[in-house]
# Entry
Amino acid sequence: MVEFDVHNLQKIKLAVHITQAAFIVLSWVIEIIVFHKASSIDGRPGWYFGLCFLTIPALIYLTMTPRFPRTRNFANPLALAIVDVIFAVLWITAFSAQASYNSSGKCKGACGASKTVVGMGLFIWCVQSA
# Structure
């Protein structure tokens, strides 16, 4: 039987969010490739690209406030959960917007990279929802 130690929850959450940050950086780079190769860009891939930057302060808040004694006052569990839920909703809108861009046929020479961005967005959303 596997026992779950609640004292390891912070370390697990930190590892999950570091993995999420790595996938965000990777998908950001692939989104730049989509911008370079695609014939026309509208707001749908732009929202995904912008959310990569918008997530940075949230990840800093979620990972760093519980770790340091001086910032633990700001690490209210309800506030952490609210930030997680808000960004889970934002990430589902971002990767669905990118998928909508793929189905519109505007990606032309960048459809493979754009589909990769959708897959990574799905993974980022799953990690954010966890």
Residues 7-129 form a domain with the Four Helix Bundle (Hemerythrin (Met), subunit A) fold (CATH 1.20.120). The two ends are 22 Å apart (CA to CA).
